[in-house]
Every structure is written in structure tokens, then in C-alpha cells.
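Translate structure to sequence.
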């Protein structure tokens, strides 16, 4: 059993997902700095996560895709409307 708690998962070109534990006897300044770095990493992760699920951001990032989706939905709605109008015309 090892005492190393640093996760082995890492992103390409970046440091590992975790940091090694603080050294024993670390001062208050070291603890504050580590806390600040952790907060910055968490804020960055949350920003990325919220941007992933934000529809406005996705539309701005992929306008061609969403234009295609809109046109497909508009075409499907027009086709359904046409079928309903024709069906009513035959029944009446």
C-alpha cells in the first residue's frame, strides 16, 4: 500500500489531475496559496461545465448545426401541418 494520494489521471499537456499532499509543517502562506489554486481550478472546471450545458453558448459555438436543426424542425412541422390539412379536406 502506498501513501501517494495523487490521482494518475491527467490531461495531455497538463499536470496530473491532483496535487501531491502538502509537506508536513507547511506554513499558513503555503496553505493559503494551495487553497487559492484549488479555488481557481474549481472555478475553471465549473465554468467549463456550465458552458457545456448552456444552450446559448452552444448555439454561438455551432451556429451551422443549430440552423440545420431549426430547418429540420420547421420542415417536420410544415409536413405535419400539410398532412393534417389534407386529411381534413378529404373528411369534409
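Result:
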Amino acid at each position: 500500500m502506498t501513501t501517494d494520494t495523487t490521482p494518475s489521471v491527467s490531461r495531455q499537456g497538463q499536470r496530473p489531475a491532483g496535487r501531491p499532499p502538502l509537506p508536513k509543517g507547511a506554513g499558513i502562506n503555503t496553505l493559503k496559496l494551495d487553497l487559492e489554486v484549488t479555488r481557481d481550478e474549481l472555478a475553471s472546471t465549473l465554468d467549463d461545465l456550465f458552458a457545456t450545458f448552456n444552450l446559448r453558448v452552444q448555439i454561438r459555438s455551432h451556429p451551422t448545426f443549430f440552423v440545420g436543426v431549426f430547418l429540420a424542425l420547421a420542415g417536420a412541422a410544415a409536413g405535419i401541418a400539410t398532412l393534417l390539412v389534407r386529411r381534413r379536406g378529404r373528411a369534409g
